[in-house]
């Protein structure tokens, strides 16, 4: 029977989805890892035997040796993809990547839009063009993965029209951006595959993006992401493939985090240790990386919300960064807070202890 494992962040992102995905990849080496939301703005850090990689355009099983798949709700930036491909190859990672024909393609003009407009609205952005790409694709100026293998003149026309859409009128400037962009596209072997490609795998690992509290339908506006960060998209893919054995791994740090602007519960500056490899630090676009104490009611909200999309799935709670607080983390207190959330949640189970102890 085919099985699926879905990794979901319970907070505002940065919970540890990358290392959780890598853990599942190690346990299931014959799997493929599927990104089903977000895109090149991900910063999912994995470290194996001293080798570290921050996964963005490849799923977090790549350093472990697993292939990647990007679904139709994801975005791809060819230049960022090419650069990460070279980094992964140098580390011996797996750069096999398959992309759904309807995945959205980011252009240099989308990146420009994100970096020069959204930031000024105090919304916050990763500066990678994801939000602009998704918004543009709601109108007539669409660009999909399938367009990357279309006749060159057709692709060229679409890119020029996208430049005009954003107000670029300098022909020489447009040509320079497009020429470099097309040069990179030509250096990549594009594996465009619909969901039927996934039927060859007995186990699928779905790697989420950001966290439930940033979901575009459920987060606190306007500081949300342009994606469904619940299990919604992953569950829909499982339904298309008729996979009934689905397990969700809900991830939280032992404290709460938020990178950038927006509402956050229990915010305070925590004195952390053992986090020298922290990927999420201040940058010009997202700005501050914020911390606070866990709000159990808010985590409960996220769990119950996601149950609306994954009500038939088995559930696991993954707690990361348990060694980063100055005081020993009260693990028993955490499990007590969650004991009534789901009947299937069992902190005494062997699997639960195996997962949580991994991050202590």
UniProtKB/TrEMBL annotation:
E.C. designation(s): 6.3.4.4
Cofactor note: Binds 1 Mg(2+) ion per subunit.
Listed GO biological process terms: 'de novo' AMP biosynthetic process; IMP metabolic process
Catalytic activities: IMP + L-aspartate + GTP = N(6)-(1,2-dicarboxyethyl)-AMP + GDP + phosphate + 2 H(+)
Protein keywords: Cytoplasm, GTP-binding, Ligase, Magnesium, Metal-binding, Nucleotide-binding, Purine biosynthesis
One GO MF term: adenylosuccinate synthase activity
Chain sites annotated for binding Mg(2+): 14
Chain residues that bind IMP: 14-17, 210, 225, 287
Main enzyme class: ligase
Location of this chain's protein in the cell: Cytoplasm
PROSITE patterns: ADENYLOSUCCIN_SYN_1
Cofactor(s) this protein requires: Mg(2+)
Residues the record lists as binding GTP: 13-19, 321-323
Active site as annotated: 14, 44
Main location: cytoplasm
Origin: domain of life: Bacteria
Annotated GO CC locations: cytoplasm
SMART domains listed in its UniProt record: Adenylsucc_synt (SM00788)
Function (record text): Plays an important role in the de novo pathway of purine nucleotide biosynthesis. Catalyzes the first committed step in the biosynthesis of AMP from IMP.
Family: Belongs to the adenylosuccinate synthetase family.
Subunit structure: Homodimer.
The name this protein goes by in its record: Adenylosuccinate synthetase
Protein source organism: Flavobacterium pectinovorum
Gene: purA
